[in-house]
Amino acid sequence: MLKKYLDKNLIEAGCDEAGRGCLAGSVFAAAVILPKKFKNKLLDDSKKLTDKQRKELRPIIESEAIAYAVAQVSAAEIDKINILNASFLAMHRAIDNLKVVPECLLIDGNRFKKYKNIPHQCIIKGDGKYMSIAAASILAKTYRDDYVDELHEKFPQYDWINNKTYGTAKHRAAIEKFGITIHHRKSFALLPKQLEINF
User: Fold this and answer.
1) Given a cut of 90, is residue 52 above it in pLDDT?
2) What residues pair up with 32 in beta bridges, in sequence order?
3) Taking the domains of the chain in order of start, what are their residue ranges?
4) Residue 196 vs residue 191, higher pLDDT
């Protein structure tokens, strides 16, 4: 059973990202402030849900949340500042866009770069522990999936509709055969070391 809050007296925003380990495309993050009395039996860590369940939950979260926002950091930005900093930046951008200012941030994971003067709590596997983080994980995942599906239309040879730009054998084989796109993260190991790519 997911917990409703860490502190019932504070306005808490749950934050999570999606696409950190991918070989291409933006990393996405979401921030969600849920009502203290929010209930939904289906809500869970997005990785434990089916695509259909995530799509079912997204409009519920968006309609019932006190505030929510989704943001992204591009592959070019990731290459400049590295993926860890890009994940923090995506979360910061999402928090920037919340219509209600949170008093505390619940962050999925073990590290975070402080956001302004708002206290935060890092929670390992938080998307499976707190409702607001689980909600953020669902929004980040579904928005990124929609974005990747659009990219797939332009670059179908990489099979992004199925691998969501993760480094599957089929994706890596396509990189070897066709080279890379403007959406690939050049700072990542796109192919095994014995194979080289000319950027």
Assistant:
1) yes
2) 14, 68
3) 12-150
4) 191
CA angle 110, 111, 112 (to 5 degrees): 140
pLDDT of residue 189: 87
Q: What's the residue count for the chain?
A: 199
Cα gap 155→163, rounded to integer Å: 13
Tell me if residue 44 falls in helix, strand or coil: coil
User: CATH code for 12-150?
Assistant: 3.30.420.10
What lies within 8 Å, CB to CB, of 56 at 6+ separation is 42
Q: How far is CA 185 from CA 53, 78, 175, 197, in A?
A: 30, 7, 12, 12
Instruction: Record the pTM.
Output: 0.94
Residue 127's identity, in one-letter code, is: D
Residue 22: phi, psi to the nearest 5? -80, 160
Whether the predicted pLDDT of 197 surpasses 80: no
Q: Residue 193 — pLDDT band, cuts 50, 70, 90?
A: low
